[in-house]
Amino acid sequence: MxxxxxxxxxxGLFNFPVEQxxxxxxxxxxxxxxxxxxxxxxQEYGAQIRAGAYDMGQIGTPVFLPAALGSxxxxxxxxxxxxxxPFYLVAAPGVGSLADCRGEPVIINKRxxxxxxxxxxHTRQENMTLDDIQxxxxxxxxxxxxxxxAFVDGIERQxxxxxxxxxxxxxxxxxxxxxxxxxAYPELLRPxxxxxxxxxxxxxxxxxxxxxxxxxxxxxxxxxxxxxxxxTALKPFADAFPxxxxxxxxxxxxxxxxFWNRGELVDRDLLNRVQRELIxxxxxxxxxxxxxxxxxxxxxxxxxxAAVGGDR
Length: 312
Prior knowledge:
Layout: E1 2-8, H1 16-24, E2 32-38, H2 42-50, E3 56-60, H3 61-67, E4 74-79, E5 88-91, E6 105-108, H4 114-125, E7 134-137, H5 147-156, E8 162-165, H6 169-177, E9 180-184, H7 185-188, E10 196-201, H8 202-207, H9 209-228, H10 230-233, H11 246-256, H12 268-280
Parallel strand pairs: 1-2, 1-3, 6-7
Antiparallel strand pairs: 3-10, 4-10, 5-8, 5-9
Helix pairs in contact: 1-9, 2-3, 5-6, 6-11
């Protein structure tokens, strides 16, 4: 049986299918032993990418692509479950927009993360800059090992009125505290300039492409299986996190899983938009080419050469 060290973003709905299959040994049906590693924030995950810690994994574009800059270690093999931004700007009662938060704390997990990148994008849409708000890196000042729970603790302490969050904690904040979604990025940020990517070691792609293909196929099969068995595959995750209830998981799935990409996909137009946004945010240099970091296992035979260039 082949062993794969798999990297995951911080705790969120998008992790649950692969985590559930790894915990129950379902990857064994694909002759794979998959060990998952979940990170505190994207900042820590990026450091692990630079250190070459994993064989494969899923990760947000604003974390992976700057972390992989100049490296021959990893390549993008597909868009993952999310070919959109699975995050939400949530706020306390009485807050109607990001503009209402001028001069106030707005919470992200840390800078150099997906929420940090999305907040920079959103302030531009409101004709603001990050200097117009107080950007608070919550995970730089908390003892919690889970951003969602640290966020909930801040809500209870009335420490802030707005921040960027992900499911299932968005549904928890709505149900328990009466907070609301001010910006649903899966819908607002269209066409998307963000995605969760699947990556693999280049050496693994070259030596064992069939293994990489098996693991990628199992990843998408896990998502399909989870949606078909929400009660047994996803709701049990509520037990793992204090205050999260099965109804929060159920609402999360209803809100977001309909957007999920559930098959191998290399969307060159999306990657071009990602490239432009990363350059705009100065996360990569002006001459950056995302195509240098993309090595899909398959390309449609009729595909025209894309503006992002050929495979490396």
